[in-house]
Write a structure and sequence with these properties.
Helix content: under 10%
Radius of gyration: 14 Å
CATH architecture: Sandwich
Distance between the termini: 24 Å
Number of domains: 1
Structural class: mainly beta
Number of helices: 0
Strand content: over 45%
Largest sheet: 6 strands, antiparallel
CATH superfamily: Jelly Rolls
Low-confidence stretches: none
Strand order of the largest sheet: 1-2-3-10-5-8
Order of helices and strands: EEEEEEEEEE
Shape: globular
CATH topology: Jelly Rolls
Number of strands: 10
Length: 109
Amino acid sequence: MKLLINERDASPIQYEQFTFTELLNKDNGCINCSAGVLEYIQDEFIQGSVHEDQEGFYVLQGQGYAKVGDVEFPISPGSCFIVLPGHYHSIKKDLSVPCIKLFYFHAAV
């Protein structure tokens, strides 16, 4: 089991509107959880998701908006928020920035 991983050593997965880089998972001891970095280029709420577990977010760079259910709010570096299980959520960047980068953490309830 590898306890330490650096983002530069991880393999990002590129989707149309975002990049997903998983850092922590069962391979490095994260039981019923996962964590990593998301980088969104979408400037509309195009892609979103719903999960059976809770997901926390911490904004690393850029600014934009998060939508959780029907609630939309501004986010910027230092913003931290949680999405409860079963709630739709989506992120969009502000037009003034090239992307918005977030740390995410999934954990079973």
